[in-house]
Amino acid sequence: MLNNLWIDLHVHTTASDGTFSPSEVVKHAQAKGLTAIAITDHDTVQGVAEAVEVGRLLGLEVIPGVEISVDHANKEMHILGYFIELDSPVLAEKLKELQSYRELRNPLMVEKLCSLGLAVTLEEVAAIAQGDIIGRPHFAALLVKKGYVVDKPTAFERYLAQGKPAYVKKEKLTPAEGIQLILAAGGIPVLAHPKYLLESNSPESLSTLIKSLKKLGLQGIEVYYSTHTTQEEKLYKKLANSENLLLTGGSDFHGDNKPEIFLGSGKGNLSIPYQLLSNLKELVLTRN
Ligand code: AMP
Ligand code: ZN
Ligand code: FE
Ligand code: FE
What we know:
- The structure is a single chain.
- The chain is of the alpha/beta class.
- 45% of the residues lie in helices and 16% in strands.
- It has helices spanning 22-31, 48-58, 89-115, 122-128, 136-145, 152-160, 175-184, 195-198, 203-216, 230-242, 274-287; strands at 6-11, 36-39, 61-72, 75-82, 188-191, 220-225, 246-250, 272-273.
- It has an eight-stranded mixed beta sheet with strand order 7-6-5-4-3-2-1-8.
- Helix 1 packs parallel to helix 2 (48-58) and helix 5 packs across helix 6 (152-160).
- The longest helix is centred in the middle third of the chain and has 27 residues, at 89-115.
């Protein structure tokens, strides 16, 4: 029954740094023949209600989600949360705190860019961001628009990536706090794109890290992801299975902010079966 039903559990909208509105994302998912998607915007759930409603009208399942950036050994790590309660007061309060960290960082990045001779204003960045969340992809888009760089990847390579001259570290939650937040909001915490952790960790230390995250309440690993190689997929699947963690998968669709990534199919390599979502749902049911 569930064969040949495809899903995408990692999708951004204009509520954070995607370029498709929540409604557009849902329509796009339906046009692509997907059965379900999860909206996982950075540090906000503002796009979820609209997506759920349009999904209801069109007959496409929309899972409420979020993607929280946390600090692991001074590197960024992302925790996805699925089936979160949108009206959770704890969630609202913490997301506001995360938003304030952006509001502290963003003007400092503008200052750094200006001192590098790139004339940008916070108003210009805000005009590119369509929602409340202003992120580095919006800075990248502005630098392209003003002709300072040829494309967005170059904006990150030259200025915005960690360690580059316009980078300003943003205050973040600890992994424990991020996982606790998702649990407190009734959600399932999942480690996003472990690939980026492998860049600074051996497979062995990744395994140790995952064990410690599990002790903190982690319940799944994003095994299927646009830029994971087949070999990496195997590794993450093995780690998930050995720790009895759920497997999830998603493209990390951002629309024109990551034009090489397609909804559902990633770089053309992804087909994520509905069964993974069934497993998540079963966990939600059995836990309550
Ligand atoms: P922020 O949360 O505002 O710091 O921005 C994070 C966003 O920037 C995420 O969507 C990342 O995908 C994107 N990002 C971070 N580093 C890079 C990079 N080196 N190249 C392209 N996008 C990046
Ligand atoms: Zn993003
Ligand atoms: Fe991420
Ligand atoms: Fe993401």
